[in-house]
Specification:
alpha+beta; Jelly Rolls; eight-stranded antiparallel β-sheet; four-stranded antiparallel β-sheet; 7 helices; 16 strands; 27% helix
């Protein structure tokens, strides 16, 4: 059993649960290889545009590299694996869509922090409509520690809300910030190959990377319904069918 009943209960009660050492070595190595390849691709794009900043990505500091999962066979194999089918069905239910995916990388010694936010806050800030909470699977490709900028979670009972809050853009980083309280949150220190699962309404942040090695994470996000835009009800992100009635339809299609 990948996700225990206790972990499912914690996810629904407090907005997160931690699954240690669940990603097989082969998947982990493939994710690491694709991460390095796509950082190089982002550098090429920055060079073409004559900039060191693309959105919330900053050269040699932190990178957010998204929407590569359907063009990469290695990423698709993980996103639609039996492992992720078990995780998503346990936490979302029998009908699941791939909503989004991205690498989140902090460079050695100067990897920037990431401000308090809810993932759903980014959706709402960029034209999304209210939605049932989706699932973020934060998968460290390196051991995640306080020193290298691991994720901090603010449980629901300490955040005082389960609703998406209004976020404000932070000058200098372009981060969306939605929590301004004094609670530092709970740091999650886990080995590479673990999954920190949290809802799109769960506040989280991360610290800077102060170590001499890169800190790499792959974030896979799934929803139980397609997310839509306010303006025209077109899709916000992806809505790739993964599970229908508990059956892996993505694997069948492949």
């Amino acid at each position: 059993m990948i996700v225990t009943p206790t972990q499912v209960q914690q996810y629904h009660d407090q907005g997160f649960c931690v699954l240690k050492n669940v990603i097989p070595h082969e998947y982990l190595e493939n994710l690491r290889a694709e991460c390095g390849r796509y950082v190089d691709v982002m550098h090429e794009e920055m060079d073409r545009k004559g900039t060191d900043t693309l959105g919330i990505s900053h050269r040699n500091s932190r990178y957010f590299i998204s929407r590569r999962g359907l063009e990469s066979a290695k990423l698709s194999a993980f996103l639609f694996s039996d492992l992720m089918a078990q995780v998503t069905q346990a936490l979302l239910g029998p009908n699941v869509y791939l909503f989004n995916e991205q690498f989140v990388v902090k460079s050695a010694e100067k990897g920037m922090k990431f401000a308090w936010h809810q993932d759903g806050g980014y959706v709402m800030a960029h034209g999304g409509i209210p939605h049932t909470p989706y699932l973020s699977c934060w998968c460290p490709l390196d051991d995640a520690t306080i020193e290298n900028g691991t994720v901090y979670i603010l449980p629901f009972d300490r955040a005082g809300t389960r609703e998406i809050q209004t976020h404000m853009r932070e000058e200098g980083t372009n981060d969306q910030v939605g929590y301004f309280g004094s609670d530092p949150g709970e740091p999650v220190e886990v080995p590479a190959g673990s999954i920190v699962a949290f809802t799109s309404a769960t506040f989280h942040r991360s610290g800077p990377n102060t170590t001499d090695k890169m800190r790499r994470v792959y974030l896979a996000q799934y929803s139980d319904e397609p997310l839509r835009k306010q303006a025209d009800h077109s899709l916000w992100g992806w809505a790739v069918p993964f599970l229908e009635g508990g059956k892996n339809v993505a694997a069948v299609a492949a």
